[in-house]
Write the structure tokens for this entry.
Amino acid sequence: MANLAINGGPKAVNEPLGKTLYAEWPEIGQEEKDALMDVLESRKWWRGGYTEDNLEDSYVVKFENAFAEYQGGKYAVACTNGTQAIELALKAAGVQAGDEVIVPCSTFVATATACILVNTIPIVVDIEPETYQIDPEAIEAAIGPRTVGIMPVHNGGFPADMDRIMDIADKHGLFVVEDSAHAQGTQYKGRGCGTIGDLGTFSLQMGKTLTCGEGGIVLTDDEELAAKAYSYHHIGRFAGRPFYEFHVVASNLRMTEWQGAISYCQTLRLPEQTERRDKNALYLEDGLREIPGVAPLERGERCTRWGFYYYMFKFISDEFEGLSREKFGEAMGAEGVSLGKGHIHPIQQNPLFTNRNFGPVAYPEGIEPPDYEKVETPVAERVMEEEICTLGHATFADADTRSMDLILAAIRKVRENVGELV
Ligand SMILES: Cc1ncc(COP(=O)(O)O)c(C=O)c1O
């Protein structure tokens, strides 16, 4: 008789794990309702309704201040979404058409498309096998005469190797923009991700741990960069200057007060939620270490707090009787634990890159993007095909470890009955 659910046996998990998206997640309360009513009744539905005298009453400004304080940055500019947050950061950093920015291959495509949208060329590099984060050696190897910046992504919210990245940037005179779309709450050696490079960007899109449906925010410790990011999100106005005076060519990327109200209330919830998730993750990690064939990412001294968007762990086929990760995922799904794979292929393999279908970008004559079909990222390919397993952040949102115990029980069951699969 079969034991595994995939072969007709009983399921290991017969209940939802963690909090269910749209039913129980995001967490909301009277605070959000009151804030939305405040906005409604104020009749000031955009940040422009507030002046120097009452700026602190704007929910967008409250959100900027609260998030900057939690993550550890000095200045913040809230905006429309995480993609445009990257565009703002790159423009503030001073990019020019045809400049190159180094990005990892293991990320959401927006990391690279945001580069193209401001007329720069993304140079895509491989990841480290241990942490799945951009490989500093690959960064150094990719630096050329047109390189102006590095954009590490804290993939899955796990921190990239910021010390080495900042050293490389210093050595070569490059800026660093941290795409921290996944890393609300993450700390690298005690410092908030997104506050270590020149600028950091975040997404508040619905799937993220901090969300208002759609939104973004840029952090920086540099007053001048903050003023530029502010101007680029505000049609080219400078703070404190007349309303109809414009200084740079820029779009309207302002966050509304509605989004500000939700983002602010959600930011106040974020510290406790991050602790809750990370406590569960640490508990899961202890359990994973005891099961042959699976392993957590080792945090070392690099990751002092993991504010993950998706949690990542490793499946090691050689230690799992040669079972494939695909089959492991299917068996786990049948047991009632749905595993993801993060990003399913390196970004440069998208037709957008292989066809260099970049739309109306204007690179200077003689400057062309690389042939992305020739860009090799073997570590990411192996990891994505054979190794990485992910779990969504809401799975970790319970106050107790019940869901973690159920996940571990399901993995143990598949491990003990692997003979049914190989
Ligand atoms: C790594 C990364 N960068 C940028 C973005 C873009 O953010 P948004 O969807 O808010 O535009 C995302 C969105 O998921 C992302 O995962």
